[in-house]
Amino acid sequence: MIHLLALSLLAFPVQSAAGAPPAAVKAEPLGLGSLVPETLELVDFDGKKTTFKEWRGKAVILHFWSTLCPAEKHADPVFQKLEKHYAGSKDVVMVGIASNQNELGAKPAAGADLSKEYGEFRKKIKDLGYKHPIFPDHGNVLSDLFQAKTTPHCFVLDRKGTIVYMGALDDDLRGEKGEEATIYVKDAAAAVVAGKEVPVRETKPYG
Question: Which of 22, 49, 134, 160 is deepest in the core (most CB within 10 A)?
């Protein structure tokens, strides 16, 4: 119990930007069963823009990610295995969101050379060998919208963009179950692809 409590205290919540001005119009938070707008925009570390419309017709595994959170020491290897499992898949896509403001720092100025920004993120992504897209979330726009509280906090969207799962990555934070672990996001994505009911729709996220 003490060990689990220590992990919980060490793991990072998604941190809000200090002194950030309020948005002119606050979008309604998304929850289980919500439809994610296809116009919702993301901008990657190189400034390339995309929207959720790109992933319509696929199951989307969305995870809020950190380079420093102790919980990611377990989660990253699981995500690496998932990435290999879905390599070449036309039915499932993985998407990462970096929302911890203390890691992101200030949003680069318009016109800045982004190749010189986000050095720690670029190194971590390279070290992990991640190929799936990961997007910075300056100002917690996405984490607030999805009500993401920790890293990793995971979501699965069905082919129409509806949130059909939200919560923990798996049931094995301490990494003791091995192949016996239940990977909630994998099971949810498999159900979406098969056109079946998602077996577990909501769990408590760790981190």
Answer: 134
Q: Let me know: does 16 contact 92? Beta carbons within 8 Å.
A: no
pTM of the model: 0.87
Q: What tokens does 81 get? A: 């295995």
| Among 143, 129, 120, CA closest to 40 | 143
Tens digits of per-residue pLDDT, 187-201?
999 999 999 999 999
Angle at 136 between CA 82 and CA 33, to 5 degrees: 60
Q: Tell me the pLDDT tens digit for each residue of 149-171.
A: 999 999 999 999 999 999 999 99
Rg from Cα positions in the chain: 16
Question: Which residues are paired to 98 by β-bridges?
Answer: 65, 136
Q: Which domains does the chain have, with CATH numbers?
A: 2-14+31-194 (3.40.30.10)
In the predicted model, is pLDDT for residue 63 greater than 90? yes
